[in-house]
Write a structure and sequence with these properties.
By secondary structure, this protein is an alpha/beta fold. It has two domains: 54-92, no CATH class; 97-304, 3-Layer(aba) Sandwich (Rossmann fold). It has nine helices and eleven strands. The protein has helices at residues 24-41, 77-83, 116-133, 160-168, 178-188, 207-216, 229-232, 257-280, 294-304, and strands at residues 54-55, 59-65, 87-92, 98-104, 137-144, 147-154, 194-199, 220-227, 238-243, 250-255, 284-289.
């Protein structure tokens, strides 16, 4: 993969082997994505979402009883004429939206052509870019087991170079523990916001626990499941030794058409459980195949996922 965004201030990020991570063609398509985002929002910044906080905003939220020291200009005299009580008008305050892009970098994400992690990097960079263009505060966090490493939560397009470099350095290795990683994440980020989890969701303990951790912490959740076509329809046959890339455990198997049929049935059933769970918990789920261009996938997420309001 190569360079995702270029401006006079930003040089192309390069992979460890010297090749560019985000190519120029992708950069240009990313600019188009940003234009689509601005068109959909019709000039309104998502950072200007309604907040539960009240103060000197412009939209009326509620009343409360007048207390000594309150600004008398906020007294609702019409309400006083109706009910005979001094009531103060409360207004909604705009609140910054914190967008957290969470990238699974466990060993299983190294599978596929292109590797699922490379695809996830493009998704993460594109979503971060669009969010920064819309004045949100954006952070990018990589997950490996319970360990987290991340790019600081910040605002402004000038942060994209750092995000590119951070994503560029990620390598697929280690175990998956999404629930443990989410527990660490919410402990570090007390303020709820939007959480975009990009993962293949291959967690031995189940993806549900990880999503529940974010739900209970009141994050707005988007799950981007990255899959390779070979995972749904593997082309294997004969005597093989299969090795788990995360644990190193291996098993000798004889792959027959009947075994492949059982595998596909189990895989489809697991996918249906994932869809049913996310629908029941009102979590936005997108299953994205790496054969589809990352920019098309991002456009689908932005347009259909309710991220742009």
């Amino acid at each position: 993969m190569r360079t995702l965004f270029r401006s006079p201030q930003i040089k192309p990020a390069r992979a460890a082997g010297g090749s560019e991570l985000f190519d120029e063609a992708f950069q240009k398509r990313l600019e188009l994505l940003s234009l689509v985002a601005r068109r959909v929002t019709r000039g309104r910044h998502r950072a200007e979402r309604r907040s539960t906080q009240t103060g000197a905003g412009i939209e009326f939220a509620d009343h409360r009883d007048y207390s000594a020291g309150d600004d008398y200009r906020h007294i609702d005299w019409n309400a006083y004429a109706r009910v005979g009580r001094l009531l103060v008008r409360l207004y909604e305050q705009p609140a910054d939206l914190f967008v957290h892009v969470l990238v699974d970098q466990s060993g299983s994400m190294g599978f596929g052509q292109p590797p699922k992690l490379d695809y996830a990097k493009k998704l993460a960079a594109a979503l971060a870019y669009v969010s920064l263009r819309q004045l949100d505060r954006v952070g990018v966090t990589a997950l490996r087991g319970r360990e987290l490493q991340g790019w600081k939560v910040a605002r402004g397009r000038h942060n994209m170079l750092g995000i590119f470099q951070f994503l560029n350095a990620l390598q697929a290795a280690g175990p998956t523990d999404l629930a443990g990683a989410m527990q660490t994440f919410v402990a570090r980020h007390k303020r709820a916001g939007m959480a975009i989890l990009i993962s293949d969701l291959y967690d031995p303990s189940g993806f549900e626990r990880a999503v529940d951790v974010l739900r209970y912490a009141r994050f707005e959740i988007y799950v981007l499941q990255v899959v390779d076509a070979a995972e749904f329809n593997p082309r294997l046959h004969g005597e093989l030794e299969l090795c788990d890339v995360e644990t190193g455990l291996s098993r000798a198997v004889t792959v027959t058409p009947r075994l492949l049929a059982r595998y596909r049935s189990a895989r489809n059933a697991a996918q249906e459980r994932l869809r049913a769970y996310c629908a029941d918990k009102r979590v936005s789920l997108f299953t994205l195949q790496t054969a589809v261009s990352a920019e098309d996938a991002v456009l689908r997420v932005l347009q259909r996922g309710g991220m742009l309001r």
